[in-house]
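Backbones bend. Shown next:

***
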Amino acid sequence: MKPAQPSSLEMIRSEMARQHADALASLEVNREAVKPLVAALGGSRRLLLLGMGGSHFAGRSAEGEYRGLGLDATALALSEVLYNPLPDLPRTALITSQSGESGEVLRYLETPPRQEQRFGLTLNETSPLARSLPGLLGSGGAEVGFAATRSLTVSLALHAALLEGLGQRQNDLRAVLQHPPDPDISEAIEQLAPTQVGVFVGRSSLQGIAEMAALGLSELARMPALAFEGGQFRHGPPEMLKPSLGLVFLKAAGATSSHSNGLIKLALQAGLHPVVFDTSGEAKIAGSTHIPLPPLSGLAAATALLYPLQKLLLALAARQVERVGEPVRSSKVTREG
């Protein structure tokens, strides 16, 4: 008798359980692999971060960190570049795909690089992306659960490996991976469970995490979810604020903290009780549901938020659907580009 296959939810939880160990290993074993990329960027000074879904959002999270090191870094959806090609200029492109074989990746690999020097970032060492381009390889193999969890944490660690090769130490991120924060999110679950629309707001490195969270809620709970960069959220979206909206702010230490506080207070004035995942180290804003985490910024803050957000999304999905993690209209690897 064949052993029972794990459920979709069990597969996701299995990925989550080993994500930090695999991410830490990925950070350490890619020290040599980043050197050709570092050399290429030393010449071009222009970095193009390409990906789809969670892979794109990982690039969005790292984009500002690369800029902080003096690089002209831009994260774009790979499909956008396929249909609206960029000018032929000298640059370094990092193509990210956890599977390394999505339709967009396969199509992009068929296009001539011209002056673009290309590298890959993937978890699948046998994929077309890994076979076609030099680059960075995540530990632990390709992700099998439907919704991205481990692949996001590992992808951020691979970006951290490159950033470290460029001179930015990643001690805080190592500490997060060695001792992942696991705050009590029960109040946040109860606050958000009755809502039918989720909105996530983040700035800088947390913008990509907000986008990841919205994607995960759409995939797992099959409910509408939006993500906004903090400044963009102020330009018009406050008109939709009402108590029935599920509003989540992601807050980091540093210059963006005060701007986040203003948006939180705006939501409170509209009658909401927003949930705040907070790595700023600041005190709770009265009226909000506060999830405190260690004071962090950059990719360390982004990585620290992933696990509690993943737990939140699974809990909310369990209130909305049966057989959580089993897609009805999508697949793990999107073949159409």
About this structure: The radius of gyration is 19 Å.
